[in-house]
């Protein structure tokens, strides 16, 4: 009998990918650079590489931001001094924060989870401060259960311990909890290793397509949970 749902935040409840696109469209022209699919792919690649170092607690959050710019700026031919990095990142951040939105299918899904009497919580790899601000800006503050991040759990996804600890915090056995998230490697496989059920929310239909517990929108979540 299912009792709880651990929801990922970025690209599950909040359109992180869309916010990054919108932010690059605002910010890059300020630097005198055109925002293209190439600059966007480059930004994604640099972000993923350095976020791993933060998740593994090898660098601070501020330092992973600087590392992203040290890789990114030379490739878009923007000269910089070390002291410029934080102010330059601020420009991106303002644009990113102004673009935070929840997905349109979130309201109905949360209502269905509530009606089914399920406990909810958010499990994310971001910082407490930024992820709290994101929930508030996207109109989700107080509408989903507690927020657990790498900072308060001391461990990040893809460690199965992140899922075990989150279940412990909400007082539920892992076998009674389902993880729902967009990253198969971060939200699905380690959740199963911790004994939870896991549903892959594959919003961009990128696969793996042989994943048996898979949705492309949250609209089908309540039905999927009753299966
Ligand atoms: Mg995510």
TrEMBL record:
Instruction: Identify the domain of life.
Output: Bacteria
- This protein is called Putative hydrolase of the HAD superfamily
Q: A Gene Ontology molecular-function term?
A: hydrolase activity
InterPro entries given for it? HAD-like_hydrolase, HAD-like_sf, HAD-SF_hydro_IA, HAD_sf
Q: Which cofactor does it need?
A: Mg(2+)
* Record keywords, A-Z: Hydrolase, Magnesium
The reply on keyword Chloroplast is no
The protein's matches in Pfam families, at most eight in alphabetical order, are given as:
Hydrolase
Among SUPFAM superfamilies, the record links this protein to: HAD-like
* NCBIfam families given in the database record: HAD-SF-IA-v1
- Single GO biological process annotation from the record: small molecule metabolic process
**Keyword Cell cycle tagged:** no
């Amino acid at each position: 009998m299912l009792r709880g749902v651990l929801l990922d935040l970025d690209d599950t409840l909040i359109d992180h990918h869309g916010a990054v696109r919108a932010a690059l469209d605002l910010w890059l022209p300020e630097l005198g650079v055109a925002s293209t699919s190439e600059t966007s792919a480059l930004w994604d690649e640099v972000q993923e590489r350095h976020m791993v170092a933060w998740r593994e607690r090898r660098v601070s959050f501020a330092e992973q931001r600087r590392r992203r710019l040290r890789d990114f700026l030379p490739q878009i031919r923007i000269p910089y001094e070390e002291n410029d990095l934080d102010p330059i990142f601020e420009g991106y951040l303002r644009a990113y924060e102004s673009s935070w939105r929840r997905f349109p299918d979130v309201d109905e899904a949360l209502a269905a989870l509530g009606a089914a009497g399920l406990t909810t919580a958010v499990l994310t790899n971001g910082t407490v401060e930024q992820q709290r601000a994101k929930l508030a800006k996207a109109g989700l503050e107080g509408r989903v259960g507690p927020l657990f991040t790498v900072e308060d759990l001391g461990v990040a996804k893809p460690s199965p311990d992140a899922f075990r600890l989150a279940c412990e915090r909400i007082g539920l056995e892992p076998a009674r909890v389902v993880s729902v998230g967009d990253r198969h490697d971060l939200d699905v496989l380690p959740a199963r290793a911790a004994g939870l059920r896991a549903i892959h929310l594959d919003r961009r239909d990128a696969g793996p397509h042989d994943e048996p517990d898979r949705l492309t929108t949250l609209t089908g979540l309540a039905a999927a949970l009753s299966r």
